[in-house]
UniProtKB/TrEMBL annotation:
Entry keyword annotation includes Membrane: yes
Species of provenance: Gasterosteus aculeatus aculeatus (three-spined stickleback)
One GO BP annotation of this record: protein import into peroxisome matrix
Function: E3 ubiquitin-protein ligase component of a retrotranslocation channel required for peroxisome organization by mediating export of the PEX5 receptor from peroxisomes to the cytosol, thereby promoting PEX5 recycling. The retrotranslocation channel is composed of PEX2, PEX10 and PEX12; each subunit contributing transmembrane segments that coassemble into an open channel that specifically allows the passage of PEX5 through the peroxisomal membrane. PEX10 also regulates PEX5 recycling by acting as a E3 ubiquitin-protein ligase.
Membrane topology, record value: Multi-pass membrane protein
Annotated family: Belongs to the pex2/pex10/pex12 family.
CDD domains: RING-HC_PEX10
Main enzyme class: transferase
SUPFAM superfamilies for the chain: RING/U-box
Record protein name field: RING-type E3 ubiquitin transferase
Pathway: Protein modification; protein ubiquitination
Location of the RING-type domain: 269-296
């Protein structure tokens, strides 16, 4: 029996087949839990049900020392970095945890942090809904509440920006890893790279193997170029947002007497739904906070409206009404 390194197309087809069967198992489990426990409880535990389905799929296949259905479909086997032995149970267990449980945990932590940092004041005003004290989400929420409660407003803003950057960084990391896989031909998943699990195919080396690898190397090179362009665009967008914040801070420092609106009937900004600060008028006559409208225009870059007659910015600070 001859063994050769599996190429990119085989690894991708194996992963796609595994994803198909994982999705089928998830849907079947969700239907069963919804029927037995009801829709309300199923909605509360949907993510946990999907996690248990994934752990069951890989626990009964990879962790138990068997091929997954996708690996059996393309006739490939797992090996350790020496490519002479099958991975140890510790390696297989590490892969299962990193592939199934770690993304679930990271998503929960980031969502809790983001909610507490960006909506902490609004959540404190509202009456808190009853929580399940034994659930992971409630533990994380209580922990993040205690941690965020000790931060000042500037520190919360910095942490919120860091969480947003981390979200984007994880997406870019996955894209970078995919491009590296297309070029190198090994480790389609980050979890397999961390666990050191490689693949060999139980078949003779085909004559098309070199052509397949060359095609994927070209795809990987193009993916890297696209990723580089995406990073440059996101960096430029970040600079524009920073410039808008600096302009707003400069305007606020130049007109301190306009910082607050007096009177109980103060007009509100339709973007933040709070009292307008440093009212700014658009050509259509609507009034916004200077920070709200500049931030919105930087987020919606194509929405900047230029005065057709003068060719200048149409956003103009006005006196408080």
């Amino acid at each position: 029996m001859s063994l050769a390194a599996a190429n990119q197309s085989q690894l991708i087809r194996s992963s796609q087949k595994d994803e198909f069967y994982r999705t089928f198992l998830r849907n079947s489990t969700n239907d069963a839990v919804q029927t037995v426990a009801g829709s309300r409880r199923w909605l509360d535990w949907r993510r946990e049900v999907e996690l248990l389905s994934d752990l069951a799929y890989y626990g009964l296949t990879t962790f138990s020392g068997y091929q997954t259905l996708g690996e059996e479909y393309v006739n490939i086997v797992q090996v350790d970095p020496t490519e002479r032995r099958v991975p140890s149970r510790a390696r297989r267990g590490l892969f299962v945890l990193l592939h199934a449980y770690f993304p679930y945990l990271v998503d929960k932590v980031l969502v809790c942090l983001e909610n507490q940092l960006e909506s902490g004041q609004e959540r404190r005003r509202r009456r808190a809904a009853p929580e399940r004290w034994w659930s992971l989400e409630s533990w994380l929420r209580r922990g993040t509440q205690r941690a965020v409660g000790q931060l000042s407003e500037p520190q919360r803003g910095a942490c919120a920006a860091a969480v947003s950057v981390l979200h984007q960084g994880l997406t870019l990391l996955r894209r970078l890893h995919a491009a590296v896989f297309y070029i190198s031909g090994s480790f389609y998943h980050l979890s397999k790279r961390a666990a050191g699990i490689r693949y060999l195919r139980v078949a003779a080396l085909s004559r098309d193997d070199g052509t397949i690898r060359s095609s994927y190397r070209l795809l990987g090179t193009l993916s890297l170029l696209q990723l580089l362009a995406t990073v440059c665009l996101q960096f430029n967008s970040f600079r524009q947002k920073q410039r808008a914040r600096q302009e707003w801070k400069l305007y606020r420092s130049l007109s301190p007497q306009r910082a607050h609106t007096s009177g109980p009937a103060a007009a509100s900004c339709i973007l933040c739904l709070e009292d307008r600060r440093h009212s700014t008028c658009t050509p259509c006559g609507h009034l916004f906070c200077w920070e709200c409208i500049t931030e919105w225009c930087n987020t919606k870059r194509t929405e900047w409206i230029l005065d057709a007659r003068h060719g200048s910015s149409a956003l103009q600070p006005v006196e408080q009404f």
